[in-house]
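Figure 2 data, in text form.
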Amino acid sequence: QVQLVESGGGSVQAGGSLRLSCAASGRTFSNYVMGWFRQAPGKEREFVAVIRWNFGNTYYADSLKGRFTISRDTAKNAVYLQMNSVKPEDTAVYYCAASRVPYGSRWPINDKEYDDWGQGTQVTVSS
């Protein structure tokens, strides 16, 4: 059974940085992509970024490209989200998710395309 555990959330001032971590366990992820989503109060869950476990190639939401960076450490079975120049509108619960997507398929950006989810970590950005 896949387990995803996020950490690293907290409170940060606008313009600052935060690094989220996702510890993955329960299986090998060689054919998976790992994504980050976020959900702000009163809003739908939103795609942030995704990385292919095997090759490390990435895809981002257009609005976040340049500020957020997704990466993974296959030796540690971990995925990271580096958040720079954060803004109050980045305030949300951030979720790590896993999806088995064949290489060459389009990037999965809909949360329904992901099978396994972490419990989320709160990020609060103050102005």
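Caption note: The chain has a mean pLDDT of 96.
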